[in-house]
Amino acid sequence: MPTAIKVENLSKAYQLGQIGTGTISRDLERWYANIRGKEDPFLKVGESNNQNTKSESNIVWSLKDINFEIEQGDAVGIIGRNGAGKSTLLKILSRVTAPTTGKISGRGRIASLLEVGTGFHPELSGRENIFLNGAILGMRKKEIQRKLEEIVNFAGIERYLDTPVKRYSSGMYVRLAFAVAAHLESEILIVDEVLAVGDAEFQKKCLGKMSDVSKGEGRTVLFVSHNMDAILKLCGTGILLHNGNILSKGNIANVCDQYMTQGIARFITHKVTKYVLSGELYLNYFSVNKSIYSQFEDIEFELELESSSRNKFDCIAIIIYDEQESRVSVLDLRTNQLLEESKISQKIRINGTCNSIGLLPGFYKMGLALGSEICTGDYLDIVGFEVKKNSKSNPSFIEFPKNVIGNLAIDFNFKTVYA
Amino acid sequence: MNHHNHSWTIESKSSLFDLKLNEVWAYRDLLWLLVRRDFVSFYKQTILGPLWFFIQPIFTTIIFTFIFGNLAGISTDGLPKPLFYLAGITAWNYFADCLTKTSTVFRDNAAIFGKVYFPRLIMPLSIVISCLVRFGIQMILFVLALSYYYFTGASFQVTWAIALFPLLILLMALLGLGSGMIISAMTTKYRDLAFLVTFGVQLLMYATTVIYPLSEAINKYPKYAWIIEYNPMTPIIETFRYGFLGEGSFSWVSLAYASGVVLILLVFGIVIFNKVERNFVDTV
């Protein structure tokens, strides 16, 4: 088989914090300090970092010297935990962002489904959106015209073709969006997590379509998902990324196995120190008191945020989410006092307790949602912990399987009366 | 189907002047669909639809006539006041629209730019063409006003310079596009610039001959009139008025000067736009 994609020495660096300071007034201040020979008022010096950064600079290598080849017609699963570089790789491949070094060469048109429905306009009808979305993805008008019937049938929206998509149900919306992208005539299809949407039946249809694309039509598919079942079903080969490096590649079953067994999915610990959030804001520490809890135990957490200059906060919250990256809860830490104090204090220390957590057994991660003058955003995958089954549960019954127990564990008591 | 099998490379560096115009051409259908989207979505969201395009210049003209024409008594070169202002407003609006809308192109399209690749130049180009639709509709209003004054015997005449009209449109579009792209590239780094734009455009209007003729400015402020003369929009509006109404300071030299400025800003704008476009996604 001829090569479809060849990646050579590909690296991508991100600058932590900003290259500029974000506003003209600050850049002028910096420039003025510079010409007087004073030190940069916005530069943070003398910090040591954890695995997220090299200690002497604010540069993070999201991908480091990646090399691989993909043969035409291969279906390749790309696996790795959050921040391993999967999305960066797909973004570079779909030309959304440019690599820092290295080169990718390939043959044939690339279609990417990084997120379906991009460019849909709510006021326009389904038909108009098919054309617009198709054109954004790189189709000519004639080509869309030719495929129109097929797209509409696949999405199952015949009756609503001339209705504005704002009146569509979310399911119809996603179906239409996927249908447009899946019918693009491309040699290489890049798919990122689309299967997280739509109902089970439609997901099956999508998987079927993607399998047709790779097996039946001989097109190359790159697939990123956290859904190992889907990846195993669809892909023949896999690439396992970890911290911007390729850890293994080859047969998909082996790669998946390595990902699951070596615990790379659960790489983060319950405690971090000197964690860089941005060039000017970092966590002196952030931890939960244990790495394994049993259900309904209390979780104690503590953290200290330090800003390099005065930094008024308007939001601090802890995000808790599970291994499938779906959000479980948010601990809102805003108080009036905090917002006032953060105007003056550069260090903020918070500790607290989550009382008798109702989490299902599994692995959970914590991140921070921050809003401040210096930086704003969600910082995920900072600490992690595991929840084990409550030892109180009756061992003489077989447990309910995972797919029926729901999302929440409830601490309950009950009585049964027999009459 | 030929372009399907071409080989491509993605590299870390690209040439500064590689404008990928062949790609823009390959995506020309997208350009038209975006223009159509802008028009249809605007039309669908409002009760009055395209009538809105008329309301803004009509009211501005009325207000200018009262305040600057009557109250302040600024000369209009002997032309009927509403006609004088309407000419200025119509042309100015097109430029100002192109500039303000292009200047937010990265911010407005961050979501879509972050997910799909297409030649980014398509977006500002579609904006300039979308604005052209609005300009066309406002020109109808201007022509209606023109014929009204013609039949009521007002003193103005259409001159040969009306033949320059297509050139004027092109100059306004490219001036808005070029400076808009420069600003849009800079706002990805300096967010506070965005606030400056709406305000700056308003101020710039007073430094352009929208509410007064150039002759009047030279007359009253001979020392400072150069500010107005060096403004590339001034020769464009003056030529516009000279073509349609027969009054205004037209000269080939100033028109050539304006074209020169437009060209420089455009080239600079495209280069800086292309440079920012490659890594813009990483900074939002």
TrEMBL record, chain B:
GO molecular function: ABC-type transporter activity
Domain named ABC transmembrane type-2: residues: 48-276
Swiss-Prot/TrEMBL keywords: Cell inner membrane, Cell membrane, Membrane, Transmembrane, Transmembrane helix, Transport
Localization: Cell inner membrane; Cell membrane
The UniProt record lists the keyword Transmembrane: yes
Cellular component aspect of the GO annotation: plasma membrane
InterPro entries: ABC2_TM (IPR013525), ABC2_TM_bact-type (IPR047817)
Gene Ontology biological-process annotations: lipopolysaccharide transport
Membrane topology: Multi-pass membrane protein
Transmembrane segments: 51-71, 83-100, 121-151, 157-181, 193-214, 250-273
Protein family per UniProt: Belongs to the ABC-2 integral membrane protein family.
Descriptive protein name: Transport permease protein
Biological source species: Pedobacter jejuensis
